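Crash report, auto-generated. Payload:
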Amino acid sequence: MKYHILEKDQLECFVRSLSKKMKAVGPVAKGHNNYAFEEVTSASQLSLDYIPTILPPKKYFMPNKEKMIDFDLGGKTPSAQAALECEELAIMGVHTCDLAGIQCLNIVFNERPRDYNYLLRKEKLFIIGVECNKYCDEYASCALVNSHLPNGGYDLFFTDVGDRYVINVNTQKGEDFVESVGLDKAEGRDLAAMDKIREEKRKIFKNEVDIDPKKLPEIFDKSYNSKVWEKVAEKCLSCGNCTNVCPTCYCFDMEDFINLDLKTGSRVRTWDSCQFETFAAVAGGENFRGERSMRQRHRVYRKFKFPVDKFNRFFCTGCGRCSRTCMAGINLKEILKEVAEESKF
Amino acid sequence: MPKNEKKISNKPKVAFFDFACCEGCQLQIANMGEDLLDLLGVIDVVEFREVMSEKWDKDYDVAMIEGSITDHHAEERIKKIRSRSKVLIAYGSCATLGGVNGMKNSFELDEIRKYVYGAGYTYFDSTPTKAVDQVVKVDYYVHGCPVYLPEVVEVLKCALRGIPYSVPDKPVCSECKLNENGCLYEKGVVCLGPWTKAGCNSWCPNNGNICYGCRGLVKNPAKNAAKNIIEKYRLDPALMKNKFDMYNKAKEATNEPKK
Amino acid sequence: MEIKNSNWKSRKAKIINARQMTVSEKWFDIRLEDGELDHEPGQFVQVELFGVGEAPISICSSPTKKGSFELTVRAAGRVTREMHKLDKGDNIAVRGPFGKPFPVKTMVGNDLLFVAGGLGLAPLRSLINYVMDNRREFGKVDILLGSRSPKDMLFGNEISEWQKRLDVNFACTVDRGAPEWKGNVGLITSLIPGINLNPERTYAVVVGPPIMYKFVINELLKKNISERHIVLSLERHMKCGMGKCGHCQIDHPKNYYCCKDGPTFTYDEVKDAKKL
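Recovered output after restart:
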């Protein structure tokens, strides 16, 4: 493991050299305690002490309107070409929960048949994580799924130890950049300061729902017909915000757009949501998840049940976005507590 | 007739008509900018009162209808336009929903006529406000007050190619969140986004405004959730109802869209 | 930028024959530019109409038929309605084949009972014709067919061929009769009690609209056919065909993507789904 240090007053220089090398984005304050990943060219634009952004960094990994095909109907026979749109991009200030989210997406798009649009784009992204020394807010449940500590998935990782950041270098790409900026190697006292932060974190971050995560699969085995889903459905607006903001939701739709010449156009992948009324409907009219209760259950099962069966990992990163964003007040932690309580009987 | 020679191309003939409305949607189209020039490359605009004086005496490939139907004369006129048009597009909330003109339907018709026209009100014809599809068949809808231009262009492309356009049936919130707007409810204001059809790219919230519901309700609006939200945010139910009525009153009439 | 190994690349094809079968169903014979489709019975393709979209369609011809493959398309959505406007000589594109085929190998040596309702005959026909072309490999074959009315019946010519065969027991019924109709009138479930079968060695393959499954399966269970010997092909909106987009995931405690883990399932696998 390689560690370097960055004095806080050098952050500006770091961001500038990064943004000169490639487009750089990071968490930016949007007012009313909202944050979003946006392009930055100076450290003054960044808010590294932030609660999870409205949209997770997945917006750079699988952009909402992603061109997959260019077609041309003008010729003798229609022709099409598979397309890829990507650019070098540095994403700064990624929380450990969001790093976990990116790891989940990597698993999904690496599963055969592999999604090369995703995989090739991912290679162009330079990921700089940042450690949370304390909880962002009461919606988080990162300790439950053990995503409050760094667990790979980044090029560089910042830990704030007071007057400086200790930077963990995890990849050659990270190494090259750190060298180009000329950062000092971390010394014993820096690493000790980092260890102390982690020690403190162990005291602060505690399983937020008081359910043994190992028991969750068993709990969900029993919760398919739980009353919780009806209760949640009473509140649900089917607006799809909980899935849009989820770092591991990747369901999508394909849409064709034609240009005004009515000949050329493109097939585009857009984000979709299992919460939308017509998501599971077929052209003949049948809707296989026509009720809000079924759709809410589906969402939660896609975090705690299905991916555990398939990939042996939770697809909840504990970021708390779904609960934070739900204006109707549907709270994931409450749902977990309720199904756990119910499964005891 | 050399003057008309330009018109006799084989491009589809598109005509714009207005009924009871503010003509704001026409203005949007007239001010479309570059897209309008591209659009004019594929269609012939044969009637458009706001920008030209010519009239067309043959059939229309596409009729664009703005405004709601509010008197007997308008009903006859829209029926005539329908009979001359291969495709009819209702655009703007007045045409697609009845829009703000629908607020008239909250009152006794004669009462409102007296209020507007005074003692001689009987000389002025008036009927309860109707959306265009409550009088004639509508092939395509472009909701909005005013219409969202990218959607107008999408719908026109569908109409020209003869394929259907589906108005998104999910709430405005879905687009609002993708635009990374903070929720207006958290800022203490009431917004109709959760029940209103998306498709406008959350145009108003993007600019700091609330959603007024100008695109009409989604097919299955979350009624229970509305009750919860009224409680959660301590809202006045009457105020909520008024907000919904602003655009959606005419659609309360039970008559199904004309097929 | 062009990308070489995209999953969204399609295969160019030409419609070499097309025929309107009923008011809402049209049949297409399609030849791929790059060779055989190489499918198995029960699989589907994504039909691509650039500028309109994609639609998953079951392949209705048997892989034993070489040179082209066939689709029966019901005009139900945006893409399928557009597809009805296409005819012999028109160009299209497809992706696929996709999906888990019928378990043909485990069926070998067993008796087969085919139950098709409406458009369900399309995917089933791929298997039926495969079995006909490899008739010796299988035991007794029963085919039960249900349609809304005589004029909705698909593949009329082939049906009369099956009817004539001595190595096939065939019966059909319509929900609503017509003056010239001399056959059975009633639901397809009414045909099952009369079938003589050995439950130990029978595979029942059932394909039809969601509403049909519950009732047909009930009758089959009454005949003591095991849940593992009842094979279904489920309808869902299979948008990507690669087990990713999420649309076709079945509402079930287990993680089933219809496009990848199906569309064929044994009843045993999916019986906990509220809607089949």
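Post-recovery validation: Confidence is low (pLDDT under 50) at residues 1-7 of chain B.
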